[in-house]
Amino acid sequence: MKKLLYNLRTINFANIAHPLRLIAFLLASTITSAQAKISLERTIELAKSNNIDLKIVDKEIEKQTVLKKTAFQPDPLQVQYQGGQFNSVDFDHNVSVQQFFPLGNVTKANRQLQEELAKLAEKRKALSSYELEKAVTLAYYQYLYGISIQKLNSELNEIYTKFLKNAELRFKTGESGNIEVISAKAKVKEIETQKEQLNYDLAIYQKQLQFFVQTTENIIPDETTSLKYAFIESQDSKAESLMTDFYQQQISVYQKESGTHKAARTPKLGLGYFAQTINTESLFQGFTAGLQIPLFGGVNTAKAKASEISISQSQLALDKNKIILNLQKEELQNNFQKQQKNLDYYQNEGLQYANQIIDTAQKSYANGDMSYWSYISFLNQAIDIKKQFAEATHSYNQSAIELQFPTIKNN
């Protein structure tokens, strides 16, 4: 999923003809403006409702529920006809019917196994739902990150447009050379080109989100959502709970499976009825009763032992993945604190410095108190700070979401 989220960003649009890009952008803009913005919570709801993978798991639960009806497994009805001289020289007939039924706890064991398999499918769905929620959240904030870059681009365009006007005015009054005007025009054109590329990036982010929601409708996140992800730290680990539930349910399945193999070693009761002629005279009837005794029960015994070994394997896998999850959470926690401190700096100081630098530089340059090259230097410094703030927020969001939804191993 992560590969899908980030690899699409590497697409190069440089070779696409400009008219086609313009048409595509106008079409995307029209669709976007007509589409209502939805919250993250609503997006997750839609994803869980539409996602085909979850629907497949629902069908597995349904299948295992239907299979409960197979708990009672009698042998096929045996119907036999015999004709010939088996009583005398006369040609007689014999028809017999026989049915064997399982004894002991076989039916109960089979029913319990199917119930546990249905529960296992439900646990698997819970894991899939968890991973889907994580993927949707990452994609949602990836889109918001694109919006923040767009806003920064618009802010830069406004700054350099003002700079261009000042440069043209200074050139007309003879206060500066034409180099300032040319440089300002080039920068404005560069920003406009970047804006077009950012529109395409945003369209890609939107399609990534739509992929997880799996709908033909355009899913557009609410731009009023705070760019900073609202991380909620909890003492209870949802990931560990889901993982533990899954493996414990897997163990329950193997326990019941072992029980069915053991129950299969019990005899089966057979009841029958026959009707025949003797010396062509009819009709003589009778009943039969018998047992099927599994003298060679080693196969079922071996299968029961194999299921018990699977129980041990699942317990070992649970123990191993608990260790992996705890180490992963420690690593994610350290990275989260690192990104949080970095973001705190830009929120509390860096962004204010950038705005002060831009305001002071613009006033000084407009009043003629600052040279062109000094103005450009300070402006680039402030812009770089704003870009770093956007990147810091994006990195914080990624680390916070990863910490909120650590990866669960279930194999």
UniProtKB/TrEMBL annotation:
<dbReference type="InterPro" id="IPR051906">
    <property type="entry name" value="TolC-like"/>
</dbReference>
<feature type="coiled-coil region">
    <location>
        <begin position="103"/>
        <end position="133"/>
    </location>
</feature>
<comment type="similarity">
    <text>Belongs to the outer membrane factor (OMF) (TC 1.B.17) family.</text>
</comment>
<feature type="signal peptide">
    <location>
        <begin position="1"/>
        <end position="36"/>
    </location>
</feature>
<feature type="coiled-coil region">
    <location>
        <begin position="322"/>
        <end position="349"/>
    </location>
</feature>
<keyword id="KW-0472">Membrane</keyword>
<dbReference type="InterPro" id="IPR003423">
    <property type="entry name" value="OMP_efflux"/>
</dbReference>
<keyword id="KW-0732">Signal</keyword>
<keyword id="KW-0998">Cell outer membrane</keyword>
<feature type="coiled-coil region">
    <location>
        <begin position="181"/>
        <end position="208"/>
    </location>
</feature>
<keyword id="KW-1134">Transmembrane beta strand</keyword>
<protein>
    <submittedName>
        <fullName>TolC family protein</fullName>
    </submittedName>
</protein>
<keyword id="KW-0812">Transmembrane</keyword>
<dbReference type="Pfam" id="PF02321">
    <property type="entry name" value="OEP"/>
</dbReference>
<keyword id="KW-0813">Transport</keyword>
<keyword id="KW-0175">Coiled coil</keyword>
